[in-house]
């Protein structure tokens, strides 16, 4: 069940390179995105998990939020980050080296 709007899904060059390897790699990235939209934030500390939960609660109660949603997943392909902007206008899938 999707807990929030994602907006368009953007993949960085690093992720596009990973999924170009084949369907197995694409499945891994898609599963990370599914986990993200279901509120499974992956390998985050408790404080970061709580920030995501607070953001969803604020959005539900007020209709808006000032916080991005962030997830981090350790996969067979390496670590994958997913960030949904606070206005839910876009979700970006990226590698740690592309995070700025």
Number of helices: 3
Unreliable spans? none
Strand content: 15-25%
Instruction: Provide the gyration radius in Å.
Output: 13 Å
How confident is the prediction overall: mean pLDDT?
96
SSE-based structural type: alpha+beta
Assign a percent range to the helix content: 25-40%
**Could you give the order of the helices and strands?**
EHHHEEE
- The total beta strand count reads 4
Q: In which order are the strands of the major sheet placed?
A: 1-4-3-2
Report the sheet with the most strands, covering strand number, pairing sense and barrel closure: 4 strands, mixed
Distance separating the two termini? 30 Å
Overall morphology: globular
Characterize the structure shown.
With 100 residues, the protein is an alpha+beta fold. The chain has three helices and four strands; from the N terminus they run E-H-H-H-E-E-E. It is globular, with a radius of gyration of 13 Å. The N and C termini lie far apart (30 Å).
Notable characteristics:
100 residues, alpha+beta, 4-stranded mixed beta sheet, 3 helices, 4 strands, globular
């Amino acid at each position: 069940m999707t807990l929030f709007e994602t907006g368009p899904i953007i993949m960085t060059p690093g992720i596009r390179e990973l999924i170009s390897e084949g369907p197995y790699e694409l499945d891994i990235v898609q599963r990370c995105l599914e986990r993200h939209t279901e509120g499974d934030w992956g390998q985050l500390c408790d404080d970061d998990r709580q920030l995501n939960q607070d953001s969803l609660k604020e959005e539900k109660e007020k209709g808006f939020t000032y916080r991005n949603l962030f997830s981090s997943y350790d996969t067979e392909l390496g670590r994958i980050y997913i960030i949904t902007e606070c206005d839910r206008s876009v979700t970006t899938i990226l590698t740690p080296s592309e995070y700025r």
